[in-house]
Amino acid sequence: MILRLLRFVRGFLVLKLRGRNCERFLNLCANRGIATWQLSVGETGEVLVCIYLSDFYRLRPLLRKTKVKLRIEKRAGLPFLVQRYRKRVVFVSILAVMMVCVAFLSTRIWRIEVLGNSSLGDETILEYLKQEGITYGIGRDAIDNDGLELALRQDFEQVIWASVYEKGTKLVVRIQEKLASQKETLVSQNPCTDLVAKRDATIYSIVTRSGTPLVKAEDTVKAGDILVCGRQEIIDDNGEISEYYYQSADADILGISTISYEDEIPLKRVETKASGAYHDRYFFRFLDYRITTPKLYAAFDCSETIEETNQLCLPGSFYLPVYVGRIREKEQLQCVENVSMEQAKKDALSHFSRFLTNLEENGVRIIDKNVMIEKEKENYHIYGRLKICEDITQRVPTEVLEAPAPKENKEE
Question: Rounded to an integer, what distance in angstroms lies between the CA atom of residue 50 and that of residue 55?
């Protein structure tokens, strides 16, 4: 590779030799230090050989001595390229500057891609990388991949595996998250906790795995009452408390409670529809510099703007800080409609169905429901109450008590 670059910079010629003494001519060239390469013999006896441009004028005495004739078949290299474009200095200069810029930009990171994340959003990871000093335009050599992988695992509890690597001018952050239930997470955060009621309810069933249960089925509890205590009393031979043992309470407790439901639907609503008319504008952005085509049209009274951006990418994941895009402004027509009672009932039923579906997805069983709708001055008022059966527990830290002082036995 280096030798080919050297030949291109110095310039070389492809010569065709004819005569009886071609072999003697090549030997004389070797004796005088004239470099030759890519020697080949044609079907009619001509010899093709390559030499440097600077050695061409040293061939005259050798040609005269051996009576060999030559013809230049090809000229190649930087000297001939400069000669060809000597009248196009501006073009060559711009081309050279572009090559230097591309070579410089190839040493930087212009795109960051996050893969494998589910609970952690892309914005969270990108903000964390920004705090670590990794932003668009940072040098590839300035990124400590191993250190960043370790930091991701240490600073994010959900991340159990991370891989950071460069692909072209793109930095790829691939992570794997730990899938743990909410209960396991709470237990790990609070090793000594009680289970308390999160709302007023009647106990439907209770299954205790650890801790001391303080309620039983069909008991009525209020919000904040302790259902299962994580503190257990150790009783001595005299029937007195000698010490306390602490653990995390764990139980499945279902309770029947009543919750309220309320919703409102306005008597009038604004409907927005697309008219089909739109205007397009285009922009070009390099780094933080942006050029946008001007508005050559009258603005819509109401519109929706959609912006599409594409980053310039060369083969091999070679992203550049060059962006082109389109700004499309769509006209929206607004009209005010009166909502009838039938339509209000239909919308209220749709909202109520979504509310029930959300409850059922969270493990809540609906026992009974009673919802009504009334027309008021400015809206339709929907209200009612639902009787549900759900897990009514929530965790709170266990109150730590001092162990009773041991009593001395007095001899009578």
Answer: 11
CA-angle at 402, arms to 398 and 403, nearest 5°: 115
Full DSSP string of 30-61: HHTT--EEEEEE-TTS-EEEEEEGGGGGGSHH
Among 17-31, 180-194, 205-219, 314-328, the range scoring the smallest mean pLDDT is 180-194
55-102 pLDDT, tens digit per residue, is 888 898 998 889 889 899 999 888 888 787 777 777 778 888 888 888
In angstroms, rounded to a whole number, what is the distance separating the alpha carbons of residues 138 and 167? 14
Structure letter (DSSP) for residue 139? B
Contact 264, 379 (CB under 8 A): yes
Residues in the chain, overall count: 412
C-beta of residue 141 within 8 angstroms of C-beta of residue 124: no
Do the beta carbons of residue 350 and residue 336 sit within 8 Å? no
Residue 228 CB partners (closer than 8 Å, separation 6+): 194, 195, 208, 211, 212, 213, 214, 249, 250, 251, 253, 393
Per DSSP (E only), the strands in 116-191 are: 159-167, 170-177
- CB atoms near residue 382 (< 10 Å): 21
Tens-digit pLDDT profile for residues 199-248 = 899 999 999 998 889 999 999 999 999 999 988 888 877 778 778 888 88
**3-class secondary structure, 201:** strand
- Sign of the four-CA dihedral 200, 206, 210, 211: positive
**Helical (H) or strand (E) element with 153:** helix 145-155
Question: What is the tens place of the pLDDT at every residue in 6-34?
Answer: 888 889 999 999 888 888 989 999 999 99
